[in-house]
């Protein structure tokens, strides 16, 4: 109830004042006018792009973003990354080499924040066509029903739609009560975790659901390791992506959030530390940079 009221106030102010400091100060006064006590005003905060918001507010704001972009999500991915996201996703899936021909059971894969199913379909294609494994199955889990609905529609164009190799689960990655402990062989999350409110909670949940020896694998935007290239990349991401969002999807704000959320995501090393803190072993360097660090793949193994 409280967070709904706050959300309403903050949204109304955002509409009137944009994201200015003035809007935030005014919101603070508005909370006081509503009689919220000091403790309630000092709820824990987190990032929503470059904004600082109450933790309780972030989930709803992220849900609004992805409900707004769901229908244009796949087309926009191609435009924003000039098609490069396909190469990154291909690399990610090949590096995991899902499926094994000698097993009757196949792998149990949980694709968290799976959205419109890009990773899940690639995983099943790889298991089937490369490893001749017809038993590996993927559960696409996402907090957003609109993204899952797009995934469900797309699945009907694949050999896996309406089969027991593919299922859908709506849920928050930070708490997955219907997923049994020690039941998953491979946990994947692609371009999802930077949107989570409590990333450490999601990592702990990944650790819980994976079998001993199971693999956590994350593909996420990261931090570019060349100053010159970084300047070009920042110009593109902050200049072009919100504009493309506005022109193609009629939604500048959501794409502004997407580029800001990339900036707020921990560095490659800091994220590796978070994975280790959740209990995972991180073999080798623990991550692989793609396109000079625009994206990176992090992996962790649950100890046997
Ligand atoms: C950028 S999309 C990525 C979709 C897909 N994995 C891909 O690579 O194309 C991010 C997804 O994260 C989902 N998401 C955000 N917060 C979440 C949470 N707390 N738990 C589960 N999914 C979440 C969003 O609904 C959205 O579908």
UniProtKB/TrEMBL annotation:
EC number: 2.1.1.201
The protein's name in its UniProt record: 2-methoxy-6-polyprenyl-1,4-benzoquinol methylase, mitochondrial
Catalytic activity: a 2-methoxy-6-(all-trans-polyprenyl)benzene-1,4-diol + S-adenosyl-L-methionine = a 5-methoxy-2-methyl-3-(all-trans-polyprenyl)benzene-1,4-diol + S-adenosyl-L-homocysteine + H(+)
Gene behind this protein: COQ5
Keyword Cell membrane: no
Top-level class of the enzyme under EC nomenclature: transferase
Keyword S-adenosyl-L-methionine recorded: yes
Protein origin, superkingdom: Eukaryota
Involved pathway(s): Cofactor biosynthesis; ubiquinone biosynthesis
GO biological process: methylation
